[in-house]
From TrEMBL:
Its EC number is 3.4.24.-. Residues 1-19 form the signal peptide. Residues 74-276 form the Peptidase M12A domain. Binds 1 zinc ion per subunit. This is Metalloendopeptidase. The active site is at E177. It is an enzyme of class 3 (hydrolase). It holds the Pfam family Astacin. The keyword Zinc applies. Keywords: Disulfide bond, Hydrolase, Metal-binding, Metalloprotease, Protease, Signal, Zinc.
Amino acid sequence: MDRIILLCLVSSWLSAVHAQKFLISPKWVPRGFKEREERGDGTAMDEIIKANEFHSTRIIDGSTSLREGDIAVSAGRRSKTCFARSCLWSKSVDGHVYIAYNLSPEYSEMEEKVIKKGMETIEKGTCVRFVPRTHQRDYIDIQPKSGCWSYLGARGGRQTVSLQAPDCLRTGVIAHEFMHALGFVHEQSRFDRDNYVTIMWPNIWRDRLRNFEKFKTDSMNLPYDYGSIMHFGMYAYSQDGEPTIIPKNSQNIKLGQALTLSHIDKMKINRLYKCGDKDDY
Ligand SMILES: [Zn+2]
C-alpha cells in the first residue's frame, strides 16, 4: 500500500514538473521537424518564421495571438475585415503619409540604425514618412518584445510593432512588419493566388495550415507579385524540407524578397494611399 502511495506521489510530482516546463516554454515545434539548413536564399518571411517559431515564446499575451505567422490579432477586435481602405493611416495635405513612431530605449544605437534603415526602405519611392512621435494620437510603438510581428493597418492610438533583438533586426524583416502596419497582408493570401502558385498542403506543418489561407484582398489592379517582400518563401513552414509553395508555369521564379521592397510593393503603397505612381518621392 505504501508503495502505491509513493508511486502516486512520484507520478503526480513528475506530471507537475512536466506541466511547469510546458508553461515556462510554450514554444511549439512540430514533431520530427528539423530546422532547415541555411541555403543563403532566405526571404524576410523565412527569418520571421525562424524568429517566431524557434527563438521566441509564441504567446504574446492573454488576449492577443498571431495569425499567418506574424500578424497580431486581439480577441474581439476587427481583424480579418481590416484590409486595404478600412484601416489607413491619415494622409497629410502635403501628400505624404506621416507615421509617428516611438522607439524603445532598450535598443542600442546600432540596433536603432538598423530599424531606421528599415524605415528608409519603405520611404524610398513611396509617399510614406516615419517621424519620431511628438504629440500624435496614432503611432507605432517599436518594442523588442518576443518575436517579429505587427498589427494590420492603423488601429487608432498606440500600436506595437515587435522587433526582437537581434533576430528581427534585419532591414527586410523590419520593412515586412511595417508593410503589415501599413495595411498589407501576405502576397500569397491574395484571393486569386491559385492562378499563380500551387500550395503543397501535405508538405506544410499540420499546425500551420491556417497560415496559408486566402483573403478577400484588393489587388489594386496590380499583377501578382512573386517577388514581394510580403510573399512567403518556397519552403515556408515546410515540415520535411519539401517546398510548400510552387510557382505555376515556371520553376525558375524566386518567391519572396530578403532585403528590400519590390517595385510592385512600392506601387502598392502608393496606390493604397492614393499617392500616384510617380517615382520621385
Ligand atoms: Zn508577415
